[in-house]
Design goal:
14 strands; 380 residues; seven-stranded mixed sheet; five-stranded mixed sheet; Aspartate Aminotransferase, domain 2; Aspartate Aminotransferase, domain 1; 37% helix; 14 helices; alpha/beta
Length: 380
C-alpha cells in the first residue's frame, strides 16, 4: 500500500454502530457493563481505554509498521512513559543535542528517582559503545536531532542496543512515519510529539508511541493506565483527522525546504545552515539511506542574538512561536526558547549558539516564504 493511501486507510475503521466514516468522539469517562465484568468491546474506564483513543493508537501502530500503539497527553508524557520502563539505578544514553524538554525531564525529574543519564555524540556510533555501562538499559536517540539536525545511524544503533541488551528508542518527530520508519530498522520503540507534524495544525498537544515488542507493549499499557497521562477523546479525534493530510503537507514542505536552503546558503548574513539534505551535512549519506524525505525544520546561524531578534521582527510569514510541524511557518531562537533549560555552557559545547535560528517550514507558497525570509535577512 502506498504511504499516501496508508495515511487514509491504515488503521482507520468506520464506526461499527452507525457506519460513520470519520472517527466518532466518545466523550465519556466510563462504560455500561451488562453484568459485572461483562464489558462491551472491552471498554471499562477511559483512563484504561477509549474508542477514539484506540483509533489513533491503531493508526500510529500501522503507520510505523508496528503492532501496538499508545497515545499520551503530550510528547513529553510519551517520553516519560518510555523512560518509566527503567528502574532505579538504570542508566540511559541519549544524543547530546537532545530536545530541551527531554533534557529537562531526564536531568531534573528522572535523576531524582535514581535514573542515571549520559548525553553522547551519537552521530559517531562508537561513542555509544564507549558510553555503555553494566547498568545501561536504554538507548534513546533523535534523528535528525533538535535543533542542529544531527543524524544518527538508526540501523547501527539498533544493532548496538541488541548486542548489549538495551531497549532502543527513536524520537521520530522530525521525520514522521511518512519519511522514516525506525521499527523497520530494528528499533524497539518509536515515539512522536504528535503536537508537531502528525497533528499539523497547532491545535492539539499529544504524544504517540509504537512498538512491535509484545512484552514492552504490555509494560507500556500498564504504565499508561497506572500513571494516567493519556490522550483525551477530543484530541485523539483531531490527531486522527490531522494525520490523513500528512503526506500532502510533508511533500509541500519538502518543496519549500529545498528552495529556502538554496537562498540561505547564498545569503551573506547567514554563517552556516544545518539540514540533512545538504550534501556536506555530517552523515548526509546515512540520512538518505534511512529516510525517504526530509524534515521541514531548518537551522541557521546569524551573527548574534540581536541579529536573530531583528531578523524575526522583519519577517511577515514566519510566526514567532515554539513548536514546529504546523501548516504555518514558525521561527524561534533555540537558546532563548526551546533549549533555554539547557545550561549555557552545555549549549555552547553542542553548537547551540545565541545566533542560531530555527525555522519550521509550513505549507504556504514557496516563493512567498523564500522572499519573506530573504528580505528579513537583508535588514541585517
Amino acid at each position: 500500500m502506498n504511504k499516501k493511501t496508508k495515511l487514509i486507510h491504515g488503521g482507520h475503521t468506520t464506526d461499527d454502530y452507525t457506519g460513520a466514516v470519520t472517527t466518532p468522539i466518545y466523550q465519556t469517562s466510563t462504560y455500561l457493563q451488562d453484568d459485572i465484568g461483562d464489558l462491551r468491546q472491552g471498554y471499562e474506564y477511559s483512563r484504561t481505554a477509549n474508542p477514539t483513543r484506540s483509533s489513533v493508537e491503531s493508526v500510529i501502530a500501522t503507520l510505523e509498521n508496528g503492532k501496538h500503539g499508545f497515545a499520551f497527553s503530550s510528547g513529553v508524557a510519551a517520553i516519560s512513559a518510555v523512560v518509566m520502563l527503567l528502574d532505579k539505578g538504570d542508566h540511559i544514553i541519549l544524543n547530546s543535542d537532545v530536545y530541551g524538554g527531554t533534557y529537562r525531564a531526564l536531568t531534573k525529574v528522572f535523576t531524582r528517582f535514581g535514573i542515571e543519564v549520559d548525553f553522547v555524540d551519537t552521530t559517531h556510533t562508537d561513542s555509544i559503545v564507549q558510553a555503555i555501562r553494566p547498568t545501561t538499559k536504554m538507548l534513546f536517540i533523535e534523528t535528525p536531532s533538535n535543533p542542529l539536525l544531527r543524524v544518527t545511524d538508526i540501523k547501527k544503533s539498533a544493532e548496538i542496543a541488541k548486542e548489549h541488551g538495551l531497549i532502543s528508542v527513536v524520537d521520530n518527530t522530525f521525520m514522521t512515519p511518512y519519511y522514516q520508519n525506525p521499527l523497520d530498522l530494528g528499533i524497539d520503540i518509536v515515539l512522536h510529539s504528535a503536537t508537531k507534524y502528525l497533528g499539523g495544525h497547532s491545535d492539539v498537544v499529544a504524544g504517540l508511541v509504537a512498538t512491535s515488542d509484545d512484552k514492552l507493549a504490555e509494560r507500556l499499557a500498564f504504565i499508561s493506565n497506572s500513571t494516567g497521562g493519556i490522550l483525551g477523546p477530543q484530541d485523539s479525534y483531531l490527531l486522527v483527522r490531522g494525520i490523513k493530510t500528512l503526506g500532502l503537507r510533508m511533500e509541500q514542505i519538502n518543496r519549500s525546504v529545498i528552495e529556502i536552503i538554496k537562498m540561505l546558503q547564498e545569503h551573506p548574513a547567514v554563517q552556516q545552515v544545518f539540514h540533512p539534505s545538504i550534501e556536506s551535512h555530517l552523515n548526509h549519506d546515512v540520512h538518505m539511506a534511512q529516510a525517504d524525505g526530509h524534515t521541514g525544520v531548518i537551522a541557521f546561524e546569524v551573527k548574534d542574538t540581536e541579529s536573530a531578534k531583528q531578523l524575526i521582527k522583519a519577517t511577515s510569514y514566519y510566526t514567532l512561536a515554539e513548536s514546529l510541524g504546523a501548516v504555518e511557518s514558525l521561527i524561534s531562537v533555540p537558546a532563548l526558547m526551546t533549549h533555554a533549560s539547557i545550561p549555557a555552557d552545555i549549549r555552547a559545547k553542542e553548537g547551540i549558539t545565541d545566533g542560531l535560528v530555527r525555522i519550521s517550514v509550513g505549507i504556504e507558497d514557496t516563493e512567498d516564504l523564500v522572499d519573506d525570509l530573504k528580505q528579513a535577512l537583508d535588514t541585517l
